[in-house]
């Protein structure tokens, strides 16, 4: 068997980053390397394999079919090498390595700050890269090790490892001043005369699909006064007395304890949401990824499930 050459692995590494970043310039910026160097390594790889992996012109960058197939194999090879190195390190040294975590803006702002800080303080050799977005992310293409997703109902089947982490129930909230002015509610039917606000920037008709005691359900429609992807904006508007909003309970914990917000129809859930952790199968074996996974699965239920003083009375 022919012994592998060091430059082969370098070519694999650079090619994978060029594909994942969608071009030589973007990969060069991410790696702090000149794009001419990356182009040279990819050209060497193509010459050695005798195939064209990337069709490139001054205006176009297209990965060929064989290029996509080779990328999958090269990505797996690099992941296996990283896992092997990390496995050895975990027996000879403290936990170390880089882990990339993706989550929503709301989760980053209200659920993860202290949990991630505790993990990093406990593991000084770990480097964490947090990717915060409300958009769907292709974990493999973006090089993400762990993603946290809030969802109602089952997630789509995929080749990702999926693990349920915690519940994150949504409730209806309003300010005491708004309810004094607009009227308190005793049944879901009372929502019809109230002003609503909506998570999500699209201004179509709003809808609250409520879950009540003993399996009762009620759908309340409203025309949103304010639509936003940012839960902080909606929470502040609600505290200012602009109307009623549905948000995860943990997002409003501080305002509930301070009396700035109160539950509306506390016996009814606005959504029985879940938080799941997703991992590409090739990344799940890395010790640092396993350690952060277990840490989050321990920390998040305490944060998101609304136990304690801020939870509404049954």
Distance between the termini: 69 Å
Strand tally is 13
Q: Give the low-confidence spans.
A: 1-6
**What's the rounded overall pLDDT mean?**
86
Quick recap:
The protein folds into two domains: 6-89, Arc Repressor Mutant, subunit A, CATH 1.10.10.10; 96-314, D-Maltodextrin-Binding Protein, domain 2 (3-Layer(aba) Sandwich), CATH 3.40.190. It contains ten helices and 13 strands. The chain has helices at residues 6-21, 24-31, 35-49, 65-92, 105-122, 139-142, 176-182, 231-239, 253-258, 287-304, and strands spanning 54-56, 61-63, 96-103, 125-132, 146-151, 160-174, 196-199, 206-211, 217-222, 224-228, 244-248, 262-264, 271-280.
Strand and helix map with partners:
Layout lengths: L5 H16 L2 H8 L3 H15 L4 E3 L4 E3 L1 H28 L3 E8 L1 H18 L2 E8 L6 H4 L3 E6 L8 E15 L1 H7 L13 E4 L6 E6 L5 E6 L1 E5 L2 H9 L4 E5 L4 H6 L3 E3 L6 E10 L6 H18 L10
Parallel strand pairs: 3-4, 3-5, 7-10, 7-11
Antiparallel strand pairs: 1-2, 5-13, 6-11, 6-12, 6-13, 8-9
Notes on the structure:
The strands form 3 sheets. Strands 3, 4, 5, 6, 7, 10, 11, 12 and 13 form a 9-stranded mixed sheet that branches. Strands 1-2 form a two-stranded antiparallel ribbon. The protein has a two-stranded antiparallel ribbon with strand order 8-9. Strand 3 (96-103), helix 5 and strand 4 form a beta-alpha-beta unit. Mean pLDDT is 86; it is low at 1-6. It has 10 helices and 13 strands. The chain folds into 2 domains: 6-89, Orthogonal Bundle (Arc Repressor Mutant, subunit A), CATH 1.10.10; 96-314, 3-Layer(aba) Sandwich (D-Maltodextrin-Binding Protein, domain 2). The chain has helices at 6-21, 24-31, 35-49, 65-92, 105-122, 139-142, 176-182, 231-239, 253-258, 287-304, and strands at residues 54-56, 61-63, 96-103, 125-132, 146-151, 160-174, 196-199, 206-211, 217-222, 224-228, 244-248, 262-264, 271-280.
């Amino acid at each position: 068997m022919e012994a592998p050459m060091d430059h082969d692995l370098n070519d694999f590494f650079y090619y994978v980053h060029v594909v994942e970043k969608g071009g030589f310039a973007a990969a060069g910026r991410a790696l702090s390397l000149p794009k001419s160097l990356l182009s040279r390594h990819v050209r060497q790889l193509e010459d050695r394999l005798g195939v064209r992996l990337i069709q490139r012109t001054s205006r176009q960058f297209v990965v060929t079919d064989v290029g996509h197939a080779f990328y999958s194999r090269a990505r797996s090879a690099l992941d296996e090498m990283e896992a092997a190195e990390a496995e050895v390190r975990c027996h000879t040294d403290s936990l170390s390595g880089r882990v990339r975590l993706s989550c929503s803006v709301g989760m980053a702002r209200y659920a993860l700050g202290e949990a991630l800080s505790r993990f990093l303080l406990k593991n000084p050799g770990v480097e964490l890269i947090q990717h915060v977005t409300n958009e769907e992310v292709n974990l493999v293409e973006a090089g993400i090790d762990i993603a946290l997703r809030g969802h109602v109902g089952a997630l789509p089947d995929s080749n990702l490892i999926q693990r349920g982490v915690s519940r994150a129930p949504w409730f209806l909230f309003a300010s005491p001043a708004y309810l004094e002015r607009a009227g308190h509610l005793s049944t879901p039917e009372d929502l019809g005369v109230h002003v609503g606000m909506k998570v999500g920037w699209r201004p179509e008709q709003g809808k609250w699909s409520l879950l009540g005691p003993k399996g009762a359900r009620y759908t309340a429609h409203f025309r949103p006064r304010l639509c936003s992807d940012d839960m902080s904006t909606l929470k502040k508007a609600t505290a200012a007395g602009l109307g009623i909003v549905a948000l995860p309970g943990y997002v409003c914990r501080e305002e509930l304890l301070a009396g700035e917000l109160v539950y509306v129809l506390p016996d009814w859930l606005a959504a029985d949401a879940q938080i799941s952790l997703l991992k590409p199968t090739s990344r799940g074996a890395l010790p640092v990824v396993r350690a952060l996974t277990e840490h989050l699965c321990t920390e998040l239920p305490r944060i998101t499930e609304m136990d304690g003083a801020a939870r509404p009375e049954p």
